[in-house]
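Quick one, T. Sequence first:
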Amino acid sequence: MKMNNIKLIIPALIKGLIALLIITLLSTDAIAQDYQFTLNPRRAYDKIKVEIWAQSLNPNAEKIGNASLVLQYNSAFLYPSLSQDLIRTDSILPIEENSPNPYITINTEFNNANGYNTLTSAFYSSDYYSLEINHNELGIGGLQPRTEGRGSFLGAIWFDIVGNPSETDVANIQWSKSSFPGNIEIFDINGNDIKSDITWTDPDQTFRVIGITFLSPIIDNQVINRNAIYKMLDGAYLDAGYPIYFERSINPDIYTPMSATVRNLDSNLAYLFEYSLDNGANWIEMGERQKAIDQQKVQIMLQDRYSNQEELTHILLLLLMV
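Structure tokens:
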């Protein structure tokens, strides 16, 4: 290669490297977000509740001001409940032998406190519904979302299950992708638009309208000791095994609706527990072949064997494997 060609190539390479460096820096800056906002759908018998969480990814992130947090959903099978409980949710703490009742209530800090007015909700169209955070005064009060775990619980939106869904119909709950109507708007306490500073995380799009979700045990490497005496179990359930918490959603066109006089859940509620050793091809009822499950990866399927049931946001089962 001639020397003059080398002299031409080297400056071009330098320019190319500088351009690549600039693009890399800009790209890194573009993906560096201050917050992550997450939707968590929950099952509540004839309803679906959607929790809204916000986490600060940057310790210097600004406090949250006014916001219209708009969800989109499958309007064929979900309809915003006429009665909304926006301000609270619940959870199950990790279960240990001497743990008290693991059920806890979580209240939002963005309702009538910390510089915020009352949380409200709004209907944008048949496919869009929102949680509205109402900040009182520019530059005053406000909260920065927590940094640990999912962050801060902002509020919850409730949907009635409608339209006679099948067992395979999905909820399609996600953040609104619409520019109008139903566009998401969010500002910091000084009135600055921070929508582009947020990572908007959608739930699993395979979440079905009808189904069962385990609440506990779901922690990796959690020890399940059926022989322990768990403090939260007493009376007839003392020394009965390991407690399992789950929640479920049903088709209200099939199940008897709840009322003040009709209870759809009583002490005779029954579920069939089965396990599979071949990835669900065959199922064996627990108690028939106990030794076969030793040292095996067991999958448990819950099959509803009772026709009249009440709200099952939380229900306690006892695992009685021997």
